[in-house]
Amino acid sequence: MTRLTEDAVKDIPSKISSLDHELEKRLGMDMRNFACHAMNVAAEKINFSDYKAAIVPVTSGKGIIGGFSRSVAAAVETMGLRSFVTEACDVAGISEAFSSDADIIFMADDERFIALNTKTRSFSDNIWSTAKGYVTALRIAEKGLEGKKVLVIGAGRVGTEAVKILMKEGAAVEVTDILPHKAKALESGFAGVKAIPNVEQAIKDNRLILNASPGLISGKLIREGAVISSPGVPYAFDDEGEKRAKVIIHDVLSLGVAVMTVASISLSLFNVPATEVIAEKVIP
Ligand code: 2YC
After folding, report:
1. Nearest residue by C-alpha to atom 9 in ligand 1
2. What pLDDT, in 10s, does the model give residues 240-258?
3. Strand order from edge to edge, sheet including 172-176
4. How confident is the model at residue 120, as a pLDDT?
5. Nearest protein CA to atom 17 of ligand 1, as residue
6. Can you give the residue ranges of every domain in the chain?
7. What integer best gives the mean pLDDT of the chain?
8. Whole-angstrom distance, CA of residue 115 vs CA of residue 103
9. Domains 6-128+254-281 and 130-249 share a fold
10. 268: pLDDT confidence band, cut at 50, 70 and 90?
């Protein structure tokens, strides 16, 4: 998983409302409505201001990313929840969140980023939520993916979840990765998925792209009118790519956090192993 940098997140809090407008301009929905659409939940059924979210900074592994917790808090507030970053970190932060009666606790170490619902004992995961969000963005931008060929770049954790979700949406999925064996593993893991060993050729041959890789992509490879949904960090595209593409949807953190938030409110997980993808069960 690509670890965010302080530089990548530092101005999210000040930019968050323009990110929200940007999404509205591109997809016709603000973050709250987009996330509800992605989770197939009626926005009016959730009283977002009823929920209090705590974000707990976690010092394990490579440690705290300056601005990360504040950026998550800003995204959650844009959704209409009350939110605060705990004073304390780690276990003390979790106990502070509980004693402040937080309904949802967001916390991320180097491996996992989850939103734990303290009332329903369910949790949502950033990897799955990011994949769900960016597949949804691609579907909206393309007005439907059923029967259409979609290339996933990057067979990492977000790319793998995106392949599964795209298959469920009836897309014809191709996957490519600079490590061809990773794409091949998805081809053998999921019937119908096609691995394309030559990354550059794969990009040239596809108009619909979900880019879940950390690599830069030369605009010369992008087809005229390409529709690109790109959770990959850092941002992959140059001026040429932006000129050729019809639309490129990208943001560093808030879109995945928005879907995580709605998922943690609307999903209850029963006996789904933590490493499993979030179930599709949605409680109305
Ligand atoms: O500040 C903190 O609490 C750190 N422990 C946060 C570490 C986040 C590591 N993960 C990432 O940078 C990316 C994010 C986009 C979410 C998933 N991976």
Report:
1. 110
2. 999 999 999 999 999 999 9
3. 194-195, 172-176, 149-153, 208-211, 227-229, 247-249
4. 85
5. 113
6. 6-128+254-281, 130-249
7. 92
8. 10
9. yes
10. low
**What CATH number does the domain located at 130-249 have?**
3.40.50.720
Record the pTM: 0.94
Spell 100-113 as b/e; 16+ CB within 10 A means b: eebbbbbbbeeeeb
Q: Which atom of ligand 1 is nearest to the CA of 233?
A: 15
Closest CA to 226 of 244, 199, 205: 244
The SS3 assignment for 233 reads: coil
| Whole-number pLDDT of residue 1 | 66
Residue 281 has pLDDT above 70, yes or no: no
Q: Say if domain 6-128+254-281 classifies as CATH 2.60.40.420.
A: no
- Cis check for the bond before 284: say yes or no (omega within 30 of 0): no
Of the residues 6, 58, 68, which should be mutated to test ligand 1's pocket, given the most ligand atoms within 8 Å of the CB?
A: 68
254/67 Cα distance (integer angstroms): 13
